[in-house]
Amino acid sequence: MIQGKSKGWRSSEFMVTCAAMVIAVLGVLFEDSQVVAALAGLCGVIAPAAYSASRAVIKSAIVKSDALKEVAGKKLSED
User: Fold this and answer.
1) Which end of the chain has fewer CB atoms < 10 Å from its terminal CB, N or C?
2) Which among 32, 51, 28 is positioned nearest to 40, based on CA atoms?
3) Which of 72, 73, 79, 68 lies closest to 2 in space, CA to CA?
4) CA separation for the pair 62, 24 (Å, rounded)
5) In this structure, is the dihedral angle defined by the CA atoms of residues 42, 47, 48 and 49, taken in order, positive or negative?
């Protein structure tokens, strides 16, 4: 599915980020619970890093795909 576009809101990284944000909100609402507070803190660190890494992988794949198309186009024009 590398066409210069991603799945947008249907992507797994978006869903994971939303779940992490919900846990963070629960951490604020139930601040007395140590378990929720620990989960919220963990999600606050891991979710943005995971999202950034996932986006970097997708963008890298798009760049590689574009480069392959460009090389293939040059080879066709040379023949």
Assistant:
1) C
2) 28
3) 68
4) 32
5) positive
Does residue 13 fall inside a structural domain?
no
- The reported pTM is 0.48
Number of domains in the chain: 1
Instruction: Give which of 37, 35, 9 is closest to 24, Cα–Cα.
Output: 37
Domain that holds residue 70: 20-78
Give residue 41's pLDDT.
79
Q: Is the Cα torsion angle 36, 29, 13, 11 positive or negative in sign?
A: positive
DSSP string, 43-71: HHHHHHHHHHHHHHHHHHHHHHHHHHHHH
pLDDT in tens, 17-55: 788 778 777 777 877 878 877 887 787 787 777 778 777
Residue 46 maps to a domain: yes
The pLDDT of residue 73 is: 77
Task: With respect to residue 54, please indicate whether it lies within any of the assigned structural domains.
Answer: yes
